[in-house]
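Entry:
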Amino acid sequence: MFQILSPLALFRDPEASPLFIARLVSSAGAGFGQMALAWGVMDLGYGPGGLAIVLACNSLPALLILFCGVIGDRFRRHHVLIAAEVITSVAWLALGTCFLTEQAPLPLLCGLAMLSGIGTATFLPTIRGIVADLLAGKGRLAGNALIKQTDSIGLLIGLSSSGMVVSTVGPGWAASTRSILCAVGAVVLCRLKTPRWQSDHPNFVRELRDGWREFVSHRWVWVMTLQYTAVIIAMVCYTDIAGPVYMEDGHGGARAWGIVTAFEYVGALVGAFIGTRWRPTRLVLAAASLPAAGAIPMFLMGVQAPWGVLAAATLIPGVCTAIYYVLWTTALQNTFAPEVLVRVNSWNIIASYVLMPITVLVAGPLVRGFGSQAAVLGAGALTVVAVACSLLVLRTTPRAAVTPTKPVEDVPVPS
């Protein structure tokens, strides 16, 4: 067990440890929030259609990700993460109040979900860049693994606990717990010190264009981005709409779904460790094949597998997702200059998150009309096709065009 968690040795680094402590605490809150939102909206009587609308509003601020990418390169990155945690804490405190009073109108829930989405849009591109500010060389590999492990441990705690909380005292308390944990995470992040990469003459349009130019200059980056977009769309349909509806329809309820989703993060603990040790000869091709594992639980749900079988099967994509994150994030950090890194990450994730509102709005009626099983079978098929297409393109690309620029050992700490 200690070997599996060996990247946790970075907790002894006073310069970086506050980041990992904050991720552990805040991720536990995210686990509580995931369950609270789904069952809170449905308990208020809005059903799958209402849940789809609220989730779409939560995803709508993804349009701001490019703007937040510029912010993450312009200001100190730990300050950006603190702002994201504060915004999220306020939103979830209000959502908890709504669920506890059991009187919240749908437009209010949508507005609060959108506020939480602003925090997420601020956070997502920046967290992938801050490790490059704090660690160098092989430390980045271990740092990215530890980010994934602390996220997984936190989500594991949050999801497994929130299923019981939602089932016993209601989603309002689960939502309030997320608010408190985000606030704690913001306080811990105040202990970090990160450099400021702002140019002498900042210009939003120029900075955005520079990020795009760097992003499209490497074929493997934008091919993998297209794959990532399709896989995320499939996962959103499965985890946010079809999965909760399937479980609520006599297949175990909130507690069982909390256990199923928590098993993914058990697998991620092992996967993050493997990611620090595995050195594939063609890193990009190896990483591109890993998301196919996400289709396994989707196909099993499509044939009405018991929730215990789903939980066990979810270990596999958990392992593969963590390895993918470590390899992919480290490759980006070692390829792009730190002053443009968050903008590149924002271009990498913008498409998938911009499409999320459309995905959940379409998924809700599809699940209602065709059933959750048909929806997850379609999501599984989309995942497999996306992986197959990306592998086909990457295999026909010259090897030099799908290789990160620098080996891990050659990357210095930014001054």
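The chain is about 75% helix and 0% strand.
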